[in-house]
Specification:
This protein is α+β, with helices and mostly antiparallel strands. The chain has 6 helices and 10 strands; from the N terminus they run βαααβββββαααββββ. It has one domain: Hotdog Thioesterase (Thiol Ester Dehydrase, Chain A). Helices cover 19% and strands 33% of the residues. The termini are far apart.
Length: 278
């Protein structure tokens, strides 16, 4: 079935989600934190990794996919943009509303992009964060629509100002998925094979969590409340257990560009932007 272009602009939600400190800790463990970052893993004086916000409302991804009518086995997370309006509490109730904003056609051979924005508030109605998600629907292109506008991030022509090496465990997706992304692509070998992969792949958002930890360690150490925005494009699949390196370039007060690469130096996550209170 073709994409449902009439879904553009229609309201999605409200969706209500209540979480507690154990959810925050489970997410931190799922993106590689441990005793070296105990402030994210121990309930005493617990702090929240900002990208937990995306995991906390990840069901919105599936509501978007369902509303647009995408072919689910062909869907990958294409891009993510998270803007934080205030620090995330260690527990609370979230209310999320949003809508699909665009459906872009990259052609029958390449697929389509479905872009949606969600706005999440605390129980008292105070805005907490805004998330823009792009679904890469590999089997849904060729419907005659316009292509997405080009967006470039030109990395500085110098060595990175900071790097952080990490290695997700071979079982990392099985832990990360407990934070909300239960998509079979990251757990079911048969589903992964049907989608064209030799085995289940890492969640792009899990790798983003590793990158967020790296960015905070070098730019906002011990102060996740200083993070204002993190955005990126998911460029290449990564298999669990493979090493990664996050490269960071400071480009001005409160601003950095970044990318995460695999062992061969190929970008897994590109077009990275990180904004923070300097």
């Amino acid at each position: 079935m073709p994409l449902d272009l009439d879904s553009i602009g229609k309201p999605l939600g409200p969706f209500v989600k209540t979480y507690e400190w154990k959810d925050v800790v489970l997410y931190a463990l799922g993106v590689g934190a441990g005793f070296s970052e105990l402030e994210y893993c121990y309930e005493k004086h617990l702090k929240v990794i900002p990208t937990f916000a995306i995991a906390a409302v990840f069901d919105f991804f599936f509501h978007v996919a369902g509303a647009a009518g995408v072919h689910l086995p062909g869907v990958l997370h294409g891009e993510q943009d998270l803007v934080l309006h205030r620090p995330l509490p260690a527990s609370g109730t979230l209310t999320t509303r949003g809508n699909i904003t665009h459906c872009y056609d990259k052609g029958a051979e390449k697929g389509a992009l479905v872009v949606a924005e969600s706005r999440t508030s605390q129980a008292d109605g105070a805005p907490l964060f805004t998330s823009t998600v792009t679904l890469f629907a590999r089997g849904d292109g060729g419907f005659g629509g316009a292509d997405a506008p080009k967006r470039r991030i030109d990395l500085p022509d110098r060595a990175a100002d900071a790097v952080m090496d990490d290695r997700p465990s071979p079982d990392q997706p099985l832990l990360y998925r407990l934070s909300g992304d239960l998509f079979e692509l990251h757990a079911d070998p048969a589903f992964a094979a049907a989608a064209g992969f030799e085995r289940p792949i890492m969640h792009g958002l899990c790798t983003l969590g590793f990158a967020c930890r790296a960015l905070m360690r070098h730019l906002t150490p011990g102060a996740p409340e200083k993070v204002r925005r993190i955005a990126c494009r998911f460029s290449k699949p990564l298999y669990p257990g493979e090493p990664i390196r996050t490269r960071i370039w400071q480009t001005g007060p409160g601003m950095a560009f970044w990318q995460t690469v695999d062992a061969a130096g190929a970008p897994i996550i590109s077009r990275g932007v990180f904004e923070y209170t300097a």
